[in-house]
Write a structure and sequence with these properties.
mainly alpha; about 30% helix; elongated; binds zinc ion
Length: about 110
């Protein structure tokens, strides 16, 4: 009887671990645009659509991959301005933008 219980517990543990591993494998990866913070599940789908904050002008180019890791806060590489998301960071003009003060948006450091 005890053996049966032990076996059941072992099977349950294995099923549990397999479910966890499966859930982690299935967790969709997130890719962000460095110009606007747009989120996509693959680089292909990210770069397939036009970016409304593209440096060449709204919808003048496609989203570009942000190659840094996901962070709790993002820092502008030109001026040090901080924001909790790429989309909020890139929503405002940067005082130290290389094109001139307020001539472009903040850009997230990697
Ligand atoms: Zn974009
Ligand atoms: Zn900035």
């Amino acid at each position: 009887m005890n053996t049966m219980i032990t076996r059941t517990i072992t099977i349950l543990a294995v099923v549990c671990m397999a479910t966890l591993a499966f859930a982690q494998a299935k967790k969709p990866a997130a890719f962000y645009c460095k110009y606007c913070g747009h989120k996509a599940s693959s680089v292909a789908s990210l770069t397939a659509s036009a970016c409304f904050r593209h440096p060449n002008g709204p919808h003048k180019g496609r989203h570009a991959l942000y190659e840094g890791s996901e962070k709790e806060s993002y820092t502008c590489k030109y001026c040090g301005h901080k924001a909790s998301s790429i989309s909020s960071l890139t929503s405002s003009a940067c005082i130290r933008h290389p094109n001139g003060p307020h001539k472009g948006k903040h850009a997230p450091a990697l």
